[in-house]
Amino acid sequence: MLENKVVAPVDGLKPVPDGRLVAHSPGHRGTWHWYEDHARDTGELAHRFAEPWGGGELAYRLGRDHDIGKGSCAWQDGLIEEVTTGRKVGRPSHKDAGAYLFAQAARQHPLLTPCVGIIEGHHTGLSAWSELRVRLKGLMRDSSEVDEAISRVAEVMPEILDGTCPAIPNWLDGRDTTSVEMLVRMTYSAVVDADRLDTAAHFRPDTQLWPDVDMTELWERYETHRQENIAQRRRQKGTSWLDKLREDVYHEAIETAAGKQGVYRLHLPTGAGKTFAGGGFALRHAALRGLRRIIVAVPFISITEQNADVYRNLLDPERGPQVVLEHHSAADFETSNRRASRAADAPGNGCQDHKRARPHQWAKLAAENWDAPFIVTTTVRLIESLFGNTPSATRRLHRLANSVIILDEIQALPDRLLTPILSGLRELVEHYGVTLVLSSATQPELAALNPWQSGLPQRDIVANPAPFFQRLRRVRYEWRTGPEVTLGSIAEEAAEHNHALVVVNGTKDASHVHRVWLGDRAEDPGILHLSTRMTGGHRREIIQAAKQRLETSLDTLLVSTSLIEAGVDLDFPRGYRARSLPESEQQAAGRVNREGHRPTEDSVMAIFEPRDGLQPQVIYNRCGIAAASRRFGKGLADPDDLDTLRSYYQHRYQLQAGRSSTDPNGATGEAIEVLRGKLDYPEVARRMRMIDNEHSVAIVAIRSQLGQRDQKAARDAIEQFRNGVPTPETYRTLQDHMASIPQRELETAIGTGHTAEIAGDLHEWIGPYHPQRGIEPPV
User: Fold this and answer.
1) Of 727, 769, 698, 49, residue with least CA distance to 378
2) 292, 701 in Cβ contact below 8 A?
3) Which end of the chain is more exposed for a tag (fewer CB within 10 A), N or C?
4) 731 HSE (CA, 13 A, CB side)
5) DSSP letters spanning 75-96
6) How far apart are CA 756 and CA 776, in angstroms?
């Protein structure tokens, strides 16, 4: 027993006094983390996070009681022995005691009983309710294994025995199981983030929460800097008709921002200034409605990089903390638990010589939690947060409450997941204080799908977008079909022009075109390549190089995968797009005659069907292709015909959608919605992966072309993960050095020695990296 144990101090460590309980081993200051401090502080922080949706009392109780199992003698003795001897000691699970106590209280409101999963899974993730219920029934029949821990914690925190049940949010409807499911998710996020922040603060006393931000001040800063940028542009280039059009769009968006919270559509053609208008709307709306955060989610990493730069320029102060956080990295630190046997207890509880486990445990604390007022992320990360079940994926979810979420390029959401995505977004709008902005030049008809068919009005930020599409039609479409059309023939045709963009359907095709252009040359500064197999910094360099060459009329040939199709501000006189879906073809056309300086007739966008290229049905929605083939093409409509696009989307969804959101025969994710109703969190997370092909993984590549300072910073960050105590800032340091490859290629690279593990599923690439094409796909 603890009170009979004599603890010899080690390196000045003070012994644990009789009657005290510890939550974590000593931090840098050599002081224990006392149990009651951790429990109450976690509860208070969770309460703060959950208060916006009326769940503060519930989150406080779960946060306060999540570690009650640590009160057992075996757990306490084990931790003290580890710290004093440096030897790893097996300790019992500490999650059941708090879950049991909460289940007892929840008898007054059985609707809250599934919340026991928050305590049970605060380290390992949310379990399926069907499995958790069996475990809970066993505990309710026989609580002997948790009684000791509860009684010992009650000696230092008698309030855990008050027996009252937390209040239920007044909007919760027990008949709607998906609302219960989302409440568990959001509360889990608040508790997990609070737990990890309080733990991190113990081990790193300099850990700080972001202070409350005055959105009115941010909005005024945004507008001031935007006006300064406009004035500078006018001094350099004069004023064009397009600048006037963009100003009209912007001011209408600002006027609409005074409206009520809800769902808004920003439907404008490429080049009309959606990035500035969307940011301005969000900031002014947040200022007027008392919202606390802006989250901009985009489908491609290339857009996060460019948009983050735009918003940093307008919002980040010259001195002081940064406002804009860019987050697109995809490492999963919980993966390490599946690769090796590691302790299930909280970070920092372990011994001093268990070196291999420690970095991975600390990496959990480094997982991004979006504690910033303006977030630029990818749609993948947003959906992972909304429907994941692991702590690192979900700890940032509660940050969505009382925010403006801009879903940029909304048409890129995968059809196979639309029903649960739309259902989840509706929950956020109706119960968690979210204003949702759907931004795209090709607005899908989402109201045709069941989750949004009734009771969720959508308002247009720009009331009548059709005239803008007429005025901004800047390209003439041509079609290349027939057996003679190949990647090589298109590459040769493009090379006949001084400036041309070729967009293809896959990385192998991009590599093929680039090789054709280079011929027997090792490199050519006017021949450029873009894909996600290149690191973020590398892609940024290529985009900047292309922009500078186009502005100075230097010969420029650029081949890219679809990542260039949205948000990348390039202006080519001619473009080629491998046949895909009409929305993708229209987005590619947005990189041609973008500024409207050339006659439309001279600005050609050629849609081609290469017989040797990756076929669209392999990577795009088959029903979308079927609906598009009847409407767009040679002799049919062009991809920017609004009426035809509307008909195309309606037909596309009709081909797939079930009769209701729970129809298991639907192909837009209806079966996943059924799983949500059953509270099957692991299976929902598995099925909600946004990226097919066993999902792509992030991999760190340190290019030899980098300067010594940048290489050192990247290697230092990697070593902090492997041997030190990383933070979210450490993670952000690596973002410029991250590329993406398919999971199956990572597994092959592990076998060939081309990668080295960093943490979780994050690896360092130590194989060949092409100076122009990045990590080459296998031939």
Assistant:
1) 698
2) no
3) C
4) 27
5) HHHHHHHHHHH---------SH
6) 18
Q: In this structure, what DSSP letter does residue 128 have?
A: B
Task: Indicate yes or no: pTM above 0.70.
Answer: yes
CA angle 169, 173, 175 (to 5 degrees): 150
* Lookup: tokens for 710: 């940048």
Strand partners, 742: 696
Strand partners, 577: 503, 607
Q: Which residues contact 168 (CB under 8 A, 6 or more apart)?
A: 58, 109, 111, 112
DSSP 187: H
Please report where in the chains the tokens 């809250």 appear, as a residue.
Answer: 112
The Cα 691–Cα 392 span in angstroms is 18
Distance CA 339, CA 353 (A): 20
| 47, 314 contact by CB (below 8 A) | no
For residue 102, give the nearest of 194, 187, 22 by alpha carbon: 187
Q: Where do runs of H (alpha helix) occur along 238-300?
A: 241-256, 274-289
Residue 418: closest CA among 694, 624, 695: 624
- Spatial distance between the Cα atoms of 201 and 6, rounded to a whole number of angstroms: 28
On whether the CB atoms of residues 304 and 240 are closer than 8 A, the answer is no
> What digits encode the pLDDT tens for the residues 486-520?
999 999 999 999 999 999 999 999 999 999 999 99
**Position of tokens 């340091």?**
733
Residue 168, token pair as written in the block:
């239920």
Distance between the two ends of the chain, CA-based, in angstroms?
64
pLDDT digits (tens, 9 = 90+) for 628-679: 999 999 999 999 999 999 999 999 999 998 888 888 888 999 999 999 999 9
The rounded distance, in Å, linking the Cα atoms of 298 and 305 is: 10
